[in-house]
């Protein structure tokens, strides 16, 4: 059995470790490229959102490389994602591929079901092995998320912004290759130090921008035009509201391991505008925007895939949030267009707007 | 000799050049069709604007979708996106303006200003319905001069309802109505209203549109669209005097600002129109992204290149063969 899974940002690093530690042979899809997109667009329903199309492209490329089992997440909310696994299975079957698809449903109330799904993958697995595999994967996921946070903070200050990015990418490669937890932790520490010791610009007070929106397009640089890097290279300090490990803490952990403090805070922040979940990350988009305003961020960029229902709801509420809090918000809809010029025009204009706002604030 | 600043806006449909005096007054302006050949348009434009021009150029700015290309050719002091350039020009020509409606060839945008500062903006993303190119297309289908389009709309007594959400459906709707026997004036007036509805629902969604409102960009020449905006917003809409060269105007103002900071201009001079510029492109084969790379040559020498997703191109690690 050769397993594969969809690409989403740096998720591959942790997921590959988890599966390999469980004794599986893993064939991750190649990095997302134009070819992935072309394959996905060709074989997916036109009205589906971009994540589904990229998933399809990922699977086809992985199956062509010899994978025979696909692991995909399920879902129960109003977002269409919950049904994507099934739709994707049908599409690939129609294309004539021979494979097995394992759709992991949310496990909040059903650890046992999750365990049984794992049994499908692994004939003989002990809780001990599972725990050990999880810990290693978790160490990688955490290290990668922490470094992403640091590089987003540091990049703007660095004299050589491109060097900061290269360092971060090098760290990802090395963490990906690391085996033991201690090794992973050491790597993270040394790269944290190196990043923070990069020569910095003096007397520089950069603008701060938060990124909110639908998780897939927020986490995957190949579809969001590498927005964190673009902003950083233009001298903006960036914070991304979503990370994979935070998401897992809220959605996959049980009992007293479950960490909902952040989520409660977000729900509370969104309450004046939206009182219940609308699927996907609609509620989080509103809440996080509110929190960024409280933390004195200069602006927020809202990313969503074209036709995404939860984010359409959020987008129609955002102008009010923006006005009440005097916080500029730029919504960017991501679809299959690959021309970067349009996005760069909007980003530059948004940065100009924030700069003039900033200057106005200083005068007063 | 008088001193002045040059602003160049190279858009999808038109290339506009403006010369401003040091007093920010317009000395000369030019509106040319880009015709899909931005390099030729820039060179022709420079040649035309130079004729009988008694001005020493102190600085030059470029904007529009080909701003990078134009910037390389002329040696720009500032290369700025068109949203900022339009806002700068709008608030200079109509002080206190609070809303700018701008419809160009391929894009439409709304800019919200308060106290002369841009506080919000939006630009069409996935749909070009209602932009200048669509109007151009319809005018040529009806064998009308685009200049007549707006006038004709004003003559309508009874505009018909046209679906404005998608240009493809708008067109088929127009054809249905025309085959039923509605008059041309009524159909064109209906189309103008549909485009305005689409613009306000799409680009203008959630924006606080306050007076004074200005309407600029090539489409602002269209009296029918202006009237439809006034009808829909129930207020006066101002079309500024230089409505079709606002991007270039703003760009010249920005050039003046930039030169004050830098002291010296990078302007390559008007003789760039005599150089031979060529663009070549190739598909990089180093990874499956297959980036489309553009090389700009001046007299055969590579002067600029873009289109890479990674940093290989900037370091010139990739040869044109893609190997």
Automatic annotation (TrEMBL), chain A:
Ranges in coiled-coil conformation? 161-188
Alphabetized, the UniProt keywords read: Coiled coil, Kinase, Transferase
Q: Organism's domain of life?
A: Bacteria
Q: Name one GO molecular function term.
A: kinase activity
Q: Secretion signal: which residues?
A: none
**Transferase recorded as keyword:** yes
Q: Which InterPro entries match?
A: CoA_activase_DUF2229, Dehydratase_Activator_Redct, FldB/FldC_alpha/beta
Q: Name one Pfam family in it.
A: DUF2229
**Domain called DUF2229: residue spans:** 15-71
Q: Which PANTHER family match?
A: BIFUNCTIONAL PROTEIN [INCLUDES 2-HYDROXYACYL-COA DEHYDRATASE (N-TER) AND ITS ACTIVATOR DOMAIN (C_TERM), BIFUNCTIONAL PROTEIN [INCLUDES 2-HYDROXYACYL-COA DEHYDRATASE (N-TER) AND ITS ACTIVATOR DOMAIN (C_TERM)-RELATED
Q: What is this protein called?
A: Nucleotide-binding protein (Sugar kinase/HSP70/actin superfamily)
Record lineage: Bacteria, Bacillati, Bacillota, Clostridia, Halanaerobiales
TrEMBL record, chain B:
**Coiled-coil blocks:** none
Extract the InterPro entries matched here: ATPase_BadF, ATPase_NBD, CoA_E_activase_dom, Dehydratase_Activator_Redct
What domain of life? Answer: Bacteria
Which parts of the sequence belong to the ATPase BadF/BadG/BcrA/BcrD type domain? 6-255
**A Pfam family this protein belongs to?**
BcrAD_BadFG
Key words, A-Z: Iron, Iron-sulfur, Metal-binding
- Kindly list the GO molecular function terms attached to this UniProt entry: iron-sulfur cluster binding; metal ion binding
Q: Which cofactor does it need?
A: [4Fe-4S] cluster
Q: What is this protein called?
A: CoA-substrate-specific enzyme activase
This chain's source organism reads Halanaerobacter jeridensis
């Amino acid at each position: 059995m050769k397993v594969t899974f969809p690409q989403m940002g740096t998720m591959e690093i942790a997921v590959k470790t988890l599966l390999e530690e469980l004794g599986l042979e893993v064939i991750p899809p190649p990095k997302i490229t134009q070819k992935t997109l072309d394959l996905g667009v060709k074989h997916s329903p036109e009205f589906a959102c971009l994540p589904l199309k990229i998933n399809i492209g990922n699977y086809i490329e992985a199956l062509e490389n010899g994978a025979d089992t696909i692991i995909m997440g399920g879902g129960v909310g109003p977002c269409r994602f919950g049904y994507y696994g099934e739709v994707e299975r049908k599409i690939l079957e129609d294309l004539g591929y021979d494979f097995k698809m394992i759709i992991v449903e949310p496990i909040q109330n059903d650890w046992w079901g999750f365990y049984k799904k794992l049994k499908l993958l692994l004939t003989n697995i002990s809780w001990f092995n599972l725990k050990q595999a999880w810990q290693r994967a978790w160490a990688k996921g955490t290290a990668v998320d922490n470094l992403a946070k640091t590089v987003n903070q540091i990049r703007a200050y660095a004299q050589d912004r491109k060097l900061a990015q290269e360092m971060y990418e090098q760290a990802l490669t090395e963490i990906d290759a690391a085996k033991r937890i201690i090794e992973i932790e050491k790597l993270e520490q040394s790269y944290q130090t190196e990043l923070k010791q990069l020569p910095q610009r003096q007397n520089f007070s950069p603008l701060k921008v938060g990124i909110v929106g639908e998780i897939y397009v927020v986490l995957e640089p190949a579809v969001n035009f590498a927005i964190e890097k673009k902003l950083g290279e233009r001298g903006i300090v960036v914070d991304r509201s979503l990370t994979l490990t935070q998401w897992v803490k809220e959605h996959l952990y049980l009992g007293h391991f479950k960490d909902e403090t952040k989520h409660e805070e977000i729900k509370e922040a969104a309450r004046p505008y939206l009182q219940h979940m609308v699927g996907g990350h609609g509620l989080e988009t509103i809440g996080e925007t509110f929190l960024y305003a409280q933390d004195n961020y200069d602006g927020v960029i809202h990313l969503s895939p074209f036709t995404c229902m939860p984010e359409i709801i959020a987008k129609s509420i955002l102008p009010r949030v923006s006005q009440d809090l005097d916080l500029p918000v730029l919504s960017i809809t991501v679809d299959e267009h690959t021309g970067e010029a349009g996005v760069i025009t909007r980003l530059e204009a948004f940065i100009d707007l924030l700069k003039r706002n900033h200057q106005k604030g200083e005068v007063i | 000799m008088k001193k002045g600043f040059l602003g160049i806006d190279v858009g999808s449909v038109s290339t506009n050049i403006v010369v401003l005096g040091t007093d920010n007054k317009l000395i000369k302006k030019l509106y040319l069709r880009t015709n899909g050949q931005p390099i030729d348009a820039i060179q022709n434009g420079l040649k035309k604007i130079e004729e009988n021009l008694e001005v020493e150029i102190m600085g030059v700015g470029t904007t529009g979708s080909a701003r990078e290309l134009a910037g390389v050719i002329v040696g720009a002091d500032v290369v700025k996106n068109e949203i900022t350039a339009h806002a700068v020009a709008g608030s200079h020509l109509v002080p206190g303006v609070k809303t700018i409606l701008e419809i160009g060839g391929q894009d439409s945008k709304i800019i919200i200003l308060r106290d002369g500062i841009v506080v919000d903006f939006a630009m069409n993303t996935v749909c070009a319905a209602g932009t200048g190119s669509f109007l151009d297309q319809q005018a040529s289908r009806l064998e009308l001069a685009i200049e007549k389009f707006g006038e004709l709309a004003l003559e309508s007594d009874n505009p018909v309802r046209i679906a404005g959400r998608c240009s493809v459906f708008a067109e088929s709707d127009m054809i249905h109505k025309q085959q039923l026997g509605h008059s041309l004036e009524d159909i064109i007036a209906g189309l103008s209203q549909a485009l305005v509805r689409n613009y306000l629902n799409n680009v203008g969604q959630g924006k606080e549109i306050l007076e004074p409102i200005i309407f600029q960009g090539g489409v602002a020449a269209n009296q029918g669209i202006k009237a439809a905006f006034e009808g829909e917003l129930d207020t006066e809409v101002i079309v500024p005097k230089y409505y079709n060269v606002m991007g270039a105007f703003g760009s010249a103002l920005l050039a003046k600002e930039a030169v004050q900071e830098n002291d010296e201009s990078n302007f390559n001079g008007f003789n760039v129109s005599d150089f031979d510029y060529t663009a070549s492109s190739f598909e990089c084969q180093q990874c499956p992204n297959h980036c489309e790379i553009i090389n700009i040559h001046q007299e055969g020498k590579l002067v600029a290149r873009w289109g890479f997703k990674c940093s290989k191109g900037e370091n010139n690690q990739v040869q044109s063969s893609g190997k």
